Amino acid sequence: MSKFWISFIPLVILLALAVSSSYDQSSFPVLLIITSLIMIAYFLLPIIKFRLLLYIVMIFLVILMEIVNVHSIGLYLLFIILYVNIDSINWISTMEFRLLTILNVFVFHFWLYIHEQYTIGWTIFSLLLFYLLISLNELAQSLKELQHTYESILGEYRKMKRQIVESERAARLEERTKIARDIHDSVGHKMTALLMKLNMLSIQEKKVEYEQLKELATASLEETRHAVKALQNEEIEGISSVLQLIRKLEAESHIHLDFTLKKGVLSTPLNNTQSIVLYRVLQESLTNAMRHAYSREVKVVLALNAVGDLEFKIENKVHQDTKTEWGFGLTNMKKRLEEINGTLQIYQRENTFVVTGIIPLGEE
Fold it and tell me: Do 353 and 314 contact (CB within 8 A), yes or no?
């Protein structure tokens, strides 16, 4: 049960007791109308910005119940006003709460006066009670400020943590690039020079040993090139890494991304090639959405199909008369997927552009 209903039910009970305790056939319809207006005002509290005005309206409606009724609703009037005052603790500011409390003190004393029950003891009691309520309101406002400060600090902490992770990743990638460049400039060049020298020797002297050395040098040079290429590739591996990069891209492109991960996707192992292909496909889809969509919202769904392969579906709103064409970006996406035996399809459904595809997870 929500917090609103928990606080609304006691008010309904108090209103029902107030009406039933002073039942009169002639005034009953008017009391029902006033009670309904009080409940409507209470329902508007989460919606209306000027809540103090609603609380004041509720108090005057309660007073109106006392006026129109043939029989006094008695202490229920005071109970309802007190409950309204307590309920407002978390809804209005400290200054507004003080104004409401002063009004309620005045209503309380006015009721005591017209019923000839006023004593100095009631004044002391009411002042102490409402002082306690004001203190509770100040405490509630302080807690709200602390919560707001905590959320702000938490947001800054998460932002700094992301920046640190990105900085470490960038430093790691820079170091890998430097190592790759050093290998390419030193080992790669020397291996190339060695291969050229062996070629010359094999031409001058037809010896089997030179051919074997040339083959060994060629294989070593090829392995060096593969190592350099692997070092230069960006570190993207696993669904979580892809999601991290996509979230970064979302923030930079100011696109609202509705990401849905079906059961088992997050724990699905992807090798480096599959991760890069998935990231590039999503990246190109977001780029297309920025260029051609009239809405900034993009929906992405990742799921596992019946055979355990990864399926993706990307949707974004486009103008209805937009033609579906295989541009350079989409063609490049298709080639990337075909290289790992994947598939890609695009189509338009009314004013929604859809990109779907499959990445086989069994392929190495």
Answer: no
